[in-house]
Amino acid sequence: MDQAVSVNADPDMPSDSEGHGSRWRNWSGFWLLGLCNNFAYVVMLSAAHDILKQQGSHNSTSPTPATVALHVEGGNGGNRSSYDCNPVSTAAVLLADILPTLLIKLSAPFFIHKLPYGFRVLVCVATAIASFLVVSFSSTVWMSTLGVIFASVSSGLGELSFLSLTVFFSRDVLGGWGSGTGGAGVAGALLYSALTQSGLSPRDTLLIMLVVPVAMVISYFFLLVFPPSFPQWKCREAESVRGGDSQSRRPLLDGSDEEEEEEREKGAEEDKVTGPLTLIEKLHVIKGLLRFVVPLGVVYFAEYFINQGLLELLYFPKFNLSHAEQYRWYQTLYQVGVLVSRSSLCCVKISRIWALSLLQCVNAVLLFLSVYYQLLPSAWLVFVIVIYEGLLGGAAYVNTFYFISKETGDRQREFAMATASVGDSLGIAISGLIAFPVHRYFCSL
Q1: Phi first, then psi: what are they for 322, rounded to 5°?
Q2: Rounded distance between C-alpha atoms, residue 254 and residue 239, angstroms
Q3: What torsion do the CA atoms of 59, 60, 64, 68 make, to the nearest 10 degrees?
Q4: Which helix (H) or strand (E) holds 350?
Q5: I need a surface site. Which of 247, 271, 281, 402 has the fewest CB within 10 A?
Q6: Could you give the dihedral angle defined by the CA atoms of residues 339, 414, 151 and 205, in that order, rounded to the nearest 10 degrees?
Q7: Are 333 and 386 in contact (CB under 8 A)?
Q8: Helix 117-136, helix 141-165: angle, nearest 10
Q9: Three-state secondary structure readout of 248-297
Q10: Nearest residue to 89 (alpha-carbon basis) of 443, 385, 333, 428
Q11: Helix (H) or strand (E) holding 206
């Protein structure tokens, strides 16, 4: 590449060329990128099931336009369980949507630096457009599944790319990104519900939503203010970073408190090294990331075990909402909690992610016992718990990436941000696998 790229040595503060107006544009740009990146992921499955119903496919679940991403609901399909169950766990749909994302996050950090950011964004936009078109015009189950896969690829590639992109801007853009991804859950569900309930067909609704990938293009290419030397269309085979202020951050390495000062000095020297990370260096960074990735994965494992394995079983017949309406509100209120906590980085920062994972596991155990023993007397208590669940999950997400960005050396930061994004997807995938036998057990009672 012709020019060296300079990562902001102190991402908490604006660079010399970044004024207040530029910082506001960048925060807003990352907010829109977060919203657009997760939007197709949020609406795709409920839309796919609506389309399948129009096709007359033999689908035992009832489509629910207001359902948030990854969730399918309906009646008990004629089963004779003491629980009002779907014949197939919602975890089946969860796995169909998360596995492509997981595969991308596991493999892409090792080669994605060879693809320019501009090209990656165009791939995300193209696959998002393909997801809307394929599902809206699908005539078979496999075509609708292919559309869901396109949405998953777009979301997975976009998340690791945009998280890596934040290292070129002031660190407050992480708050914009997190808030935007949280807003996608609420906005996607509400917009899809509003359009379909106003009389539009699911197909027409999806075609209208093609404006979302267009908004991603506008946000990235026209709203963000890039550093002058940013390699928009060039791969980053070589890079040069400033090391002057690197001692203010500790490299992302394992070690005791006594070694902290030595690691700082070592990190300052490492930050002066130019060139891409070697495989050994990448593995060393991954080892240091475990203290962030493992708690994040545990949070999302417990979170999606609740959402996919338990919430559909928490039905209160005497409540003034139907089973479908109760489930819809569970998911909507959960997304509201996620939106609030992912937008909280400017107000509060939590470094002990392990504490959030512990509290989320307590939630999962409490709701599991509530399903088994039918302890909770009313859906109102579940509403409170799922809001709290969303608050914990959203807080774990934004604070994990904030402290990875803060505590990683300049040279390792871009790779670390992309690699750490696998934590939540891995936790979600494992929860989907475990939710299958749990759902089967309860529905066989």
Answers
A1: -70, 170
A2: 25
A3: -90
A4: none
A5: 247
A6: 50
A7: yes
A8: 160
A9: HCCCCCCCCHHHHHHHHHHHHHHHCCCCCCCHHHHHHHHHHHHHHHHHHH
A10: 443
A11: helix 202-208
Alpha helix positions (H), 343-421: 353-373, 379-407, 410-420
Phi/psi at 73 (5° precision): -135, 175
Residues 408, 171: contact at Cβ < 8 Å? no
Q: Is 73 helix (H, G, I), strand (E, B) or coil?
A: strand
Question: Which amino acid does the sequence have at 122?
Answer: L
What are the helix and strand counts (H, E) for the chain?
Answer: 14, 0
For residues 407 and 208, give the distance between their C-alpha atoms in angstroms, rounded to a whole number: 42
Domain 20-239+252-443 has CATH 1.20.1250.20: yes
**pLDDT tens digits, one per residue of 3-45:** 444 455 444 444 444 567 888 999 999 999 999 999 987 887 5
Burial class of 49 by CB neighbour count within 10 A (0 to 12, 13 to 18, 19+): buried
Give, for 43, the enclosing helix (H) or strand (E). helix 20-54
Supply the pTM of this predicted model: 0.77
Domain boundaries, the chain: 20-239+252-443
Per-residue pLDDT tens digits for 160-208: 999 999 999 998 899 999 999 999 988 887 888 788 878 888 889 889 9
What are the structure tokens assigned to 85, written together? 């169950």
Q: How many C-beta neighbours within 10 Å does residue 317 have?
A: 8
Assign residue 32 a region (left: φ > 0; alpha: ψ between -120 and 50; beta: otherwise).
alpha
- In angstroms, the first-to-last Cα distance of the chain is 64
